[in-house]
Amino acid sequence: MARIKVTQVKSQIGRLQSQKRTLEALGLRKMHQTVEHEATPSVIGMVNTVKHLVSFEEIK
Asked: Do β-strands 34-38 and 54-59 pair in parallel, antiparallel, or remain unpaired?
């Protein structure tokens, strides 16, 4: 299965509580922190929820 690399590029300050919790569920707690996940539908849905706060790329 494909993997994706997710990096937080904007701050979570002033965001909705649900967006903050989504970032935490992805494992992102600091700016410019990067995590890797399997590209499952649930993870892709979480990334789409906070797509304005993160950047992501597919890893082969």
From this structure: unpaired
Q: Look up residue 38 and give its DSSP letter.
A: E
Mark out the alpha helices in the chain (DSSP H runs): 17-26, 41-49
| Residue entry with tokens 């590209």 | 39
Residue from 11, 16, 38, 17 nearest 26 by CA: 38
State how far the Cα of 32 lies from the Cα of 41, in Å rounded to an integer.
24
Positive or negative, the CA dihedral 39, 41, 42, 46 is: positive
36 forms beta bridges with 5
* The model's pTM: 0.91
Q: What is the pLDDT of residues 13-57, one digit of tens each?
A: 999 999 999 999 999 999 999 999 999 999 999 999 999 999 999
